[in-house]
Amino acid sequence: MMGAIIGDIVGSRFEFDNHREKDFEMFTDDCQVTDDSIMTLSVAKAIIETEKIIKPVFDEYNYESDYYLLIEKMVVKYMQEIGRKFPYCGYGGMFSKWVFSDNPQPYNSFGNGAAMRISPVGFAAGTENEVCKLSEAVTGVTHDHREGLKGAEATAVAIYMARKGFTKSEIRDKMIHDYYSLDFTLDEIRDSYRFNEACQETVPQAVEAFLEATSFEDAIRNAISIGGDSDTLAAITGSIADAHYGVTEELKEKALSYLNDELLTIYKDWEGFIDKR
Fold first, then answer.
1. Using one digit for the tens of pLDDT, what is the confidence trace for 201-242?
2. Measured between alpha carbons, how far is residue 8 from residues 108, 113, 192, 201 in Å?
3. 3-class SS at 142?
4. 3-state secondary structure of 260
């Protein structure tokens, strides 16, 4: 999850001022936490609080089980509760209405927000089947369009595979077989790729940025270098790269300095939660 936060913060200053090069300073005074990190931490909080009440037994729960029903409620609760404290952090129009709604309902979205917040699922789930079921439960409260659900699931599965030690070749094959064609390289799209908030036009590019990388930091630089929705693209790339490479303490501590006390507490709680796993 730290990878998503780093990608978000580093990419925040390039979202509307794309930098199509890999040579740039990672953290500056112009960087900030956006909705990508805030919603990622909200999902993490929902998982933590759910499992204080119900412990999942992987592969033994049906989708309709109490665990998944509670996850859905907790995701709504914490995305609204935490999200309302950050009204100007970069929400899209429909999601902003959802955050402040008294009766929040899914709105058939395929926006890339589904994928930028999903990384806690990829790190928490115990099996690939669990990844898919948990991803659907977390995502469907807002992004219930087929492409929104697919983008989140593809990201979560890539994270799961990376942390389980699958090779990049195996991850690429899985993405191509089940999700996206990946029939391009970053060099081929760098000059033509433009800002796009759809999962289907962000997740494949983020996955490719990870697959072409030589390190965690190189993955973030890859994501920034193609432009587009830089903070979200880098957050998705960073979440997968974190699972594969890990994150240095230097980068981690720098990123955490951008979080306020509430967000920092959630992150530390998440670290403890994952350590116990």
1. 999 999 999 999 999 999 999 999 999 999 999 999 999 999
2. 24, 12, 22, 18
3. coil
4. coil
**May I ask the CATH class of domain 2-272?**
mainly alpha
Name the residue type at position 36: D
Among 167, 161, 169, 109, residue whose Cα is nearest residue 140: 109
pLDDT given for residue 55 in this prediction: 79
Domain ranges in the chain are: 2-272
Cα 208 to Cα 68, 124, 141: the distances in Å are 31, 23, 28
pLDDT, tens digit (0-9, with 9 covering 90-100), for 5-29 = 999 999 999 999 999 999 999 999 9
Which pair of structure tokens corresponds to residue 70? 């509670």
Tally of residues, the chain: 277
Tell me, what amino acid is at 229? D
pTM, two decimal places = 0.96
Dihedral sign for Cα 222, 202, 111, 147, please. negative
Residues 6+ apart with CB under 8 A from 9: 27, 31, 32, 33, 34, 37, 231, 255, 258
